[in-house]
Structure formats: C-alpha cells, structure tokens
From TrEMBL:
Superkingdom of source: Bacteria
GO molecular function list: peptide transmembrane transporter activity
Signal peptide segment: 1-22
Recorded family membership: Belongs to the bacterial solute-binding protein 5 family.
Keyword Metal-binding: no
UniProt GO BP: peptide transport
Keywords tagged on the record: Signal, Transport
Organism (species): Sporosarcina newyorkensis
Pfam families: SBP_bac_5
Protein name (record): Peptide/nickel transport system substrate-binding protein
UniProt GO cellular component terms: ATP-binding cassette (ABC) transporter complex; periplasmic space
Region feature Disordered, mapped onto this chain: 25-66
Domain Solute-binding protein family intervals: 92-461
Stored InterPro entries: Peptide/Ni-bd (IPR030678), SBP_5 (IPR039424), SBP_5_dom (IPR000914)
Length: 542
C-alpha cells in the first residue's frame, strides 16, 4: 500500500475510533468516571489493584502521635511502622522495625536491634538516631500536642511521673530505652499505632505541616487528602519487605451514613466498608458477590458523665442514670445480637476483667429513688451528646441517643440531644463541655491499663479521661498495677479498681460489640484486627 493510501486509511480508522469513544463517553454518565474506573484504565483494565475503603468519618490528622481516634489510625497504620508489631489477629508482641529486643532483669532497660537498610518515604535513613528523635519529640511536647504519650508514659520530660528516663542510640542500629520504674505493658505500649516512627526530616518542618504531610517507612505512601471526602495512599515501591504491598493504591472514602455506605458497597462504588449495621449483616451474607467480616471484639461503648458538672458531681445521680437506661433494648434494637451488655469499662476478653461485677439492672423506680436522695425528685434538664459518626462500638449514635432520651424522660430527666462535627465533638468533650456524652474505646494493646488507667485516671484528665473523674484509691491501684510484673497480682489490682468504678459510676457502660465489615467477594488477604487498625499490605483481588 502506498504512503497516501496508508495515511487515508489511518485517518478513516481514527475517525471511526473517535466516534466510538464519543458514544461510549456520552449519555447518562453525567458524573464522570469513578476513581476505580480511572485506575483500571491506568493499569490497562486487566487487573484491579486499587482498593476503595468506605468508612464512617474522616481522619482528624495524619500524624498518629497527635490523636486518639481510630479513623486516623486506620490510615496511618499503612503509612507508618512501629518498633514492635502486634500479631495478625491479636495483641501478642512481634518484631517490627526492631527485629530483636532484650529487656534487662530488673525491667528498667530495653535494648532494640533495628532492621538495616530501611528508609523513610522521603529517603531519610531509618536508624537509631531517627528513633531517638521521635521519642525526644514526644517527650518535649504536652498533652495538647501528644495526648496519648501523656496517657501511656505518665507525662512528659520534666514531669515527676514520666516513666521514660532516656532513649539513646548505641551505634547506627541499636536503641536503648531506660525507664525510671518498671512498666508491665511497656512493650505493648510502644507497639501501638500512635508510637509509629516518623521521618525526622519531615516532622522537623513543624507539627502543623507534618500532620497533613506524613512520612513513614510503611508499605504505602501518602498521596492526597481531600477533607471529608477521600485520603489516597499509594504503593511504596521501595518497601523493605519483599513482595509487599500487593495493591497499587488505597482510597479511603468518607461516607458518614451507614445505609449510604452499604449501598456504595452493593453498587460496586467501594470494595470494602466498615461500620456495617448489625441489621445489615444478613444482607451481605446472602449476597454471593459480597463477604462479611467480623472484627474480634475488644471494645466498649459508653455514656460518659462529666463529674465536674452539676448534677453529675453527685454519685447518686450517676447511679440513677445507670438504672434508668435500658441496655438490653439498645442491644436488641441496634446490635442484632452481635454485642453483649457491658458490666465494666473494659471487655471480658481483657486479662483482669472482674466477672463478679454485674451491670446495673434496668430499674426506673430505683433511678427515681436515687434522684430523690440527691434532691432532684422533680428531675432536671441536661444535654445528651450523640455521636455524629458510626463507630465499631456504636453503630448509630443518634438512634441510641433517642432510646436513652426516652428512658431518661421516664424518670423525670429532660435530655436535649445535641451533636457536632466529629473533630469538634471530641475536642469539646475533652474539655469537659458535655453533661453526658456518648463515646467508646477500642483497645490499642489488649491490656487492662489501656482501658482503666487511660480512660478513667486523673493523670489523663484533659486527654483521654473526658469525664474528669478522679479517685485516690483507683489512682493508687492503677500505678501499682503498672509496675507489678506478676500477672495474677496485676489482675487482682484491676479487679479491685473495677469495683470502685462500678460504685462511683462515672460511666454508663453500654455494650461490647462485634464490629462488622463488608467486602466484595474478590477481596482476599484482609484480616480485621481487634484494635481497629487494619494493615492492608497483604490485601489483593483474586
């Protein structure tokens, strides 16, 4: 074929192709192609390597050391790594960035041997000095910037109760941590998501800059954050663990409404969804295109009572609310049998749980009697804060709040339901602005200390203790339990503390749930973790 005819034929084929493409792209698709469509096109459409993960709320930061909420850790566990890891489905301590560790006989010195050849996403070397700089950054902070460091290590650098004496580098790949006193859960504490190791090069640019531009050593790297919409992370091509991750990209998509999130899963808009309503579990199980995941339960949902605000400064009033609320109806109505009534502030799966304590029974008449003892026989008015996002321990905060509101009305308490955007809700509750607030906790390390001390000790007022409850006896028990290495003795101390907490009633414990997630049938390698922070490096589509 001559050159002129060849050119004419090519032109005709180009016009035909253009017409076909125009027909494909026109018509009903007014919203354009989805992120998944674009990524399929990028890879030739032969293999899906982008996971779209629908969740109930946005992260509040991408610097894990600055927050205490799970939506942040859900993302950052895939960007960062800790010195030690937890097991795939439990909280046993495993190697992480530290391949080996050795405690001294007196429990005061820990020596960690780091993996060699690991780099942060910005090219900075992961070495002993980088680890030291991370600990120095946290220790030189305060409860506003690093609230969880305060909770787990007794304060900051110059505080009397600060447990860490020093963190030093012994050569390039050996880190030595010395403690002022033994801390039984120390190894579990440093395996927690918020103590992930960051690039010093990145965080030295400033905390505010860093929480929007995170840099870790993890299997994925940060790409983009569109507030209240999506967070995108991509494969770390230089990841130090061979063959991982298996996905090229993960998009975390905020879909606050549970039903809308389920519909997005059903329609194929997303591949994985958390916060599945227990009532919708059967719908997923019956769909041959989907699969249902159950997260091992290690949580508690509760109604917190701010003890510094009247009338919740009176024990009788706090006990009255415990008697007034029908927990069984809440569980039957909203958890579909995938939860149990909470008797204590920590779940039965945690060592040290006091099985002898029973939940306050539903007894409106007893509640009225206690209110009369407190001089409030005519009731009172209060604000009831309802969670604005679904959480593993509270699938629908607004509806649960409506049940509580009705229960309280039956004993003469007029509760006005209020709520705020999630970050604002947490910030205001932390400051003690709520009368009563719905919240919960998913354990971060599987230790009783992570529930009782972190959430209900005076050391953590202004960080994780939103009720502002303080008690000299429980404080003494918590500190003694932290330094007690005999497991049976530790458990007995925690059981004593739970008896006091039951009597003082700073919470109305509601439920321990089995959180549900739904995914497409092709998804493989996804293992829900009891901490709520799911590592996605082994996930792929079969």
């Amino acid at each position: 074929m001559r050159k002129g005819k060849l050119w004419s034929f090519a032109l005709i084929m180009l016009l035909v192709l253009s017409t076909a493409l125009a027909a494909c792209s026109g018509g009903d698709d007014k919203e354009g192609s989805s992120d998944k469509d674009k990524d399929a096109a990028d890879t030739g459409g032969n293999e899906n390597k982008t996971l779209v993960f629908g969740r109930g709320g946005d992260s509040t930061s991408l610097d894990p050391s600055r927050v205490t909420e799970g939506e942040t850790f859900k993302v950052t566990v895939n960007l960062f790594e800790t010195l030690l890891n937890f097991g795939e489905q439990d909280t046993t301590v495993q190697p992480g960035l530290a391949k080996e560790w050795e405690p001294s006989e007196d429990g005061l010195t820990y020596t960690f041997q780091l993996e060699e050849g690991v780099k942060f996403h910005d090219g900075t070397d992961l070495n002993a000095e980088a680890v030291v700089k991370n600990f120095e950054r946290w220790a030189n902070g305060d409860a506003d910037t690093f609230p969880y460091y305060n909770s787990m290590f007794g304060g900051f650098k110059d505080d009397e109760n600060h447990i860490i004496e020093s963190v030093t580098a012994d050569g390039d790949h050996t880190v030595v941590i010395k403690l002022k006193r033994p801390q039984a859960p120390f190894l579990k504490n440093i395996a927690m998501s918020m103590f992930a190791i960051s690039s010093p090069t990145a965080f030295e640019k400033g905390d505010d800059e860093y929480e929007r531009n995170p840099v870790g050593t993890g299997p994925f790297k940060f790409v983009e954050w569109k507030p209240n919409e999506t967070i995108t992370i991509e494969k770390n091509e230089d990841y130090w663990q061979d063959g991982l991750p298996k996905l090229d990209k993960v998009i975390f998509k905020s879909i606050p409404d549970n039903s809308a999130r389920l519909n997005s899963l059903l329609s194929g808009e997303i591949d994985l969804a958390d916060g599945i309503n227990p009532a919708d579990g059967a719908k997923i199980e019956d769909n041959d295109k989907l699969q249902l995941f159950e997260r091992p339960s290690m949580n508690v949902g509760y109604l917190g009572l701010t003890v510094t605000r009247e009338p919740f400064d009176k024990k009788e009033v706090r006990q009255a609310l415990n008697y007034a609320i029908d927990k069984q109806t809440i569980i039957d109505s909203f958890f579909e049998g995938r939860a149990e009534i909470a008797n204590n502030p920590m779940p039965p799966s945690i060592s040290g749980y006091n099985e002898d304590i029973k939940a306050y029974p539903y007894d409106p008449e007893k509640a009225k009697e206690l209110l009369k003892q407190a001089g409030l026989e005519d009731g009172f008015e209060m604000e009831l804060w309802a969670m604005p996002v679904p959480r593993p321990y509270m699938p629908d905060g607004t509806k649960v709040a409506e049940v509580i509101q009705s229960n309280l009305a039956d004993v003469g308490i007029k509760a006005k339901i209020v709520s705020y955007e999630w970050a604002t809700y947490l910030e205001k509750a932390e400051k003690g602005d709520a009368d009563a607030f719905m919240l919960g906790w998913t354990g971060d390390n599987g230790d009783a200390d992570n529930f009782l001390y972190v959430l209900l000790d005076e050391d953590n007022i202004g960080s994780n203790n939103y009720t502002y409850f303080k008690n000299d006896e429980t404080h003494k028990l918590f500190l003694e339990a932290q330094t007690e290495v005999d497991e049976d003795k530790r458990n007995e101390l925690y059981k004593q503390a739970q008896e006091i907490l039951h009597e003082e009633a700073p919470w109305v414990p509601l439920a321990h749930s089995i959180p549900l997630l739904g995914g497409v049938q092709e998804l493989t390698g996804f293992v829900p973790h009891p901490t709520g922070s799911d590592l996605l490096s082994n996930v792929e589509f079969k």
